[in-house]
């Protein structure tokens, strides 16, 4: 409870930061986008990972405020980068199940886009499998609405949740993000190699973009390139970093 109120204070007093992790195109051989990842710059305890405070934020309901703040900040940053002439295709923002299930979720997206003046096609929303399994009809109508607005949609941590291929068939998303657990032991683990190749093939035949996560080595990057995976994200290409650092990296 104490941490929850500290977190509320942090949000209201400018202690949260948005870091950006590069997304690399293996075919274009350059950075084409980024994922926004929140950090808590605690005055005494230093940088706190979202892995440690997102669960607390979810329990207390504060997660929707944090996600909205990250969404607004990311849209504004992306707009500034595009205005400065940076050649980026998208900024991806994580959407918690809590935010996704809110009745005013699309309004928050519309607001963030209107306030930032960012063209919606540069915003990618990362949705989890659990969020789209809860109330299938509502999820589909919501995602279709966002699609119609030209917002991009990605299914995060693909392969780890409860969604089925049957669900995927009708799901209005543009991208699947292969979870890092399948990438970690590439290329030596035969099962992981088979799963990753199968997801890439599935993406190709369903006309979905595929982005692999958690690439840490050249060997993993090479395996993915040879398997015709187009997009890659991981420490090998760059860690999540402050906006100024990301800007330096690409210009
Ligand atoms: O950035 P990182 O390395 O430590 O993130 C840990 C977890 O926190 C990941 O599951 C990531 O998806 C989640 N996360 C990071 N930033 C956000 C955010 O802005 N909103 C939500 N809902 N989750 C986030
Ligand atoms: O749940 P989500 O996929 O949004 O979370 C992404 C998380 O993965 C963040 O915590 C981010 O910092 C972390 N991450 C990004 N690249 C790598 C990587 O190459 N290796 C590891 N171990 N974690 C990574
Ligand atoms: Mn994510
Ligand atoms: Na992920």
UniProtKB/TrEMBL annotation:
Residues 1-251 form the EAL domain. This is EAL domain-containing protein.
